[in-house]
Every structure is written in C-alpha cells, then in structure tokens.
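Worked example

This section walks through a single chain of length 147. The input is the sequence exactly as stored; nothing has been trimmed or padded.
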Amino acid sequence: FTFGGLPPGGEPATHIAIPYPHVTGSQVAYTFDPASGRYLRFLGDDPHTDAGNGVQLALENVVVQFVFHGETDMVEDSLGNTGIDLNLFGEGEVIVFRDGVAFRGRWRSDSRGDTPHFFDQNGAEIPLKPGKTWVSIVPEAFEVEYR
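Given that input, the structure is written out below as tokens.
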C-alpha cells in the first residue's frame, strides 16, 4: 500500500454502512471519531470488539474493494453450500475512507500476490493514512452507503 497525507477532494464520510445479506449476521457499520481520527467498527448495533482485550476496533482506513464474485462447485459445508470465487487480479471500483472523507476510484492488482493499488478518478494514487486498515471485499454491484 501507499501511505501519505490527506489528498485533496473526496466527499464527507463520517458514517459508513456495508449491508451484507441479513443471513450472514454481518451488518457492518463504521462511525468516524474525530477525536482519534479513526473509524469505529460495528457489527449490527453492537461495537465490534477485539476478542483478546475487549476494545472496540478502531481503524485509520476503511477500504471497500468491489470484486467479481462467481460460484464454484467446491462444497464448503455440510448443508451443501458452495464456495465463492473472488477475482482479486485486474481492476475494479474502490472507495477509500480516511480522515472522515471518502475517495472513489479504481483498484488495480497486476499479478498474483500483488498488493492492490488505489487510484482516484484522475489516475493519481490514493494514499492510505498510516495505521490500521480494514479491506472489505464486496460484489461489484453492491451498494455501500455513506454520509
């Protein structure tokens, strides 16, 4: 990843909602805490806490990477549910959240094992804020809400 100062532009984003399907029990939300400069993570209405110390997860960056999801014939569980094929190579849409601001752009990963890079609408790389980052991989047509 590339790290650096807050780039120009973007849109205000102090609340983020990633509405995973209800069957997963993983309704994810983030609220930006200006005092710490971090996004606080929630599962449903509850703070998402570290199982080791009970402290709520707080992140400098939240990245939502829109990726092709395909079905596989690999059975994942005793109910017969099949696995998901994620294409993490190539490029797609991305939203990078940092410092209470959302930056829309494109991600690109050129080869297996390559760390993705994030670019704004003008092709400039979007730097992450040094610190903790949570990358959410979502289907290409997924709707992520923020304000």
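What to look for: Residues 11-146 form a domain with the YerB-like fold fold (CATH 3.50.90.10).
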